[in-house]
Amino acid sequence: GSAYGIHVVNKYYEDVRSESEKESSLKLALSEVGVPVILAGITTLIGFISLLTSNLSLIKEFGFFTACGVLFATLIAITFLPAVLSLLKVKRRENHNEGEDKKEPTEEEGIWVIRFMDRWAAFVLSREKLIVIIMIIVFISALAGLPLLSREVNMVEYFKKGSEIRLAEELMEEKFGGSIPVQFYVRGDIKNPFVLKQMRMAEKYLSSLPDVNDPQSIATLICELNDVMNDRYTIPETEEGVGNLWFFIEGNSILDQLINSQHTEAVIQAKLGTVETGRVIKVVDAVNRYLENLPKELIKVHLQETDETVRQKLEETRIKRIAEQIALDVKGRMPDYHLDQSKLELIVAKGIQESETAPTKLLAERIADKIGDYFLSDAADIMLEERELEKVKVAFRKSPLIPLLQRGNLLRGNPSLGEVKMILSSNIDKETVAEDPEALDYAAESIAAIISETIREGRVSVILSNLSRFLPQELLNDKEFTSDLKADVWEVNENLMAISKEEYASIFGEENAEKDRIILSIQQAGIAPIYKELDRQLMRSQISSLLIALLLVFLLLWAQFKSIVGGLISVAPIALTILVNFGVMSYLGIPLDTATMMIASIAIGIGIDYTIHFTSRFKGEFAKQANQRAALEKTLETTGVAIVINALSVMMGFLVLMMSSLVPLQRFGWLTALTMFTSALGAITVLPALILLTKARFVSRS
CATH number of the domain at 2-96+106-148+530-701, out of 1.50.10.10, 1.10.10.10, 1.10.357.10, 1.20.1640.10? Predict the structure, then answer.
């Protein structure tokens, strides 16, 4: 806004000589400078109003209130300022007759800016081709740097090194996994084991992403409880199993942070180990791709109720899923390790086959030993004599039940209580259970569970043994990894599984099943997607506001000069200024953020002022002299002085921001000052050079 007042005052003092000339000089100043001031105000308004196309309220508010300020500055320059000048006394200046020697320089000649512009005019008017060549070189250099322009903003770098907030964030990233939360919003029956398994799978995926740390949810708590109670870090197969573990955490205050009271909504939480927007956006994009492929509806399938052909297809689906989980566990700990997932699937499938054909004798011995340990423990429901205990162990060791279960555990399920009870009753004296006949039933239940658990453990051990020859030893030495690996493989023991509608239709040849449907949805939430959207809106706002502003300014100048060439020449210094701004940012590694993106609009708003004032004055001088070089020289010595003074004053104002403790404000300050410098330089260098090369045809036509 100061430019408008400077041009009015400069023109007034250029013409006024005495008190009697005050009124006429003011009228002359307003008649010659008033229209350029109004045009400059309108074009500056366009530059800032173009920011209203942004979807970001911060940018919109900046554009609106700055436009209001420009409007008020324009009105003050053409109303209030002339009124004030009319009240001030005129300092009388001595006029020298033409040809008279000047022993002392006049006050006007003594001003260094005027002396500088005299020499500058001589330079520009004699080297217009060199100036245009330099402009083209700068233009190409700046254009070449645009691909290097970064939108990756590290907000920690907004603060000086050693500042408390920067040190605190670095400590959070190094010691605690970061401070920015990553969150998934989950809807469904949260107590359903298959919903919990999908949540657990999502946690594994998050762990596999760079910069994502410590994912956790209600699924994590259930796994930890199952690990303590049953020595496996898995989600139980059935709702009853989940309910038994849920009992231990029911009413705990931590549940309020993870699920709602109706158990229909939950969150998965993790931490981002960076505040750099580029890396945050990569995580957001990766998560979005993962969530797009997640099924919205699952169908529960009982393997023991299917025929052999269908069961084989379901087994293949499950093996693929197990391999995916193992691959995620590996990637989460060794991101650079390449794992062949197809080979992993073959190893798991081979392990399942080997577990069903493994020597039965060793398995039977292990089961017999565990049964013996049970009867010797305090948990036993029957106290056996040593003779009876040995008979029971031998009976189970030789029972055909063990190899049958080993070969078809998934088909038959757990051993029946009747079969186990028959073996016990045949080898335990009747007197032992005479006092408490029901004790035999309780013992049968415990032993059936021991048999089933031992067979399942054996199957998993065979598969893990095969995998150990395929996976890096470094991972096998990690207890958490081996625990997760066992949990992944444990799924081969389960009779229930859930598959997507598409998988169900492919395997069963039906569209869907009316029963056993599980509905769930997982959405990304939290601050990370906001970073992503903010980045997208920043880029969109930058492009749209620049294009709209440049187009409207060009149309306005085209209308003023009634010439396309005139419009293009007038816009050229502004376009060069914007390119130089982005070029400097590119080569110095300064990112495009909410502060730096507004500089281009400022360049248009202020740079166009210089262009309009220069071309308007040149147009007037050219009409008087009909000599383009003389008109340009006069324009540079008058309006050029006002442009330089205005640019210097505005630069000083923005350079004050260099004293800020915030790095973005420092960058905004010196980049805007640089923009003022290049805008002014373009107006008093590039613009007259282009006018000379075109021989001012657009001015003569207008």
Answer: 1.20.1640.10
